[in-house]
Every structure is written in structure tokens, then in C-alpha cells.
Amino acid sequence: MGGQTLVTGVIGSDTHIVGNRILNIGLEKAGYQIVALGALTPAEEFVDAAIETAADAILVSSLYGQGELDCRGFRDLCVEAGIGDILLYIGGNLVVGKQSWESVEQRFLDMGFDRAFPPGTRPEDVVAALEADFARRGAGGRGD
Prior knowledge:
Layout: E1 5-10, H1 18-29, E2 33-36, H2 43-53, E3 57-62, H3 67-70, H4 74-80, E4 87-92, H5 101-110, E5 115-117, H6 123-137
């Protein structure tokens, strides 16, 4: 599979880029076109890049524990920009303190993300999720 365009980056004031780079390498090997925004990326830049590149999905990384704050309203930004149906993933160390993954995951799903991945998720697990979600949505990726 693959071939779809994915916008990736590290949101907010987070500078932890290594995991995001490893993910990008795995996604490229799986045949995806990557638009890598790097670190310190505001939510608006993810949305702008997705529009400019006609991306099929946005994959947000956060490792410094502030993902919940940085991602509030992310889906709303997508809706306001006319890409409310874009596939939206998040992964990393998303909250401060020790919390059950199930509660963290549910919080991000409630925020409008299609999937949330815990720290240590392997790129092949993200590829498998993308393949399943794109297959479910149809060839266009956005449910069209």
C-alpha cells in the first residue's frame, strides 16, 4: 500500500525530533510521501501544510508531556480549514505524570484524533494502522 501523502511533525514547544525522524523513515519505506515539518511546529502549520500538499493524513508527535495542551482544538482547526475529514493521528509521551494509557488514549480520541499511540510504538504499527484506515476510507484516504 502507501502512496498517500502524510504531514508529520512535533507539535508545540517540543524539540524531541529523533522518534519523529525514525517514524518518517519507516513511513517512507512503506511507500508514503512525507511532508516533514520538524520540531517546534504550531498546530496551524500542520493544517496549512496538509492543505498545501493535499495530504491524506496528519501525524502529530509530542514527547515532552504537553501534547494535551498543544492539541486542544486541533480537529476544530481542521474543520475550519475545510479538511475536517482528514485522518489525524497522535503519538508519544502525551501527558505529564503517570496515567493509564487507556485514559490518555480516550482523551485524545475525544479530542478528535482517529488514533493515539503510546510511547515506544514501532513504525510498522503505525503503517499497519494507516493501511487499515485508508482501506476502510477508500482509495482517496479522506472518506471520499
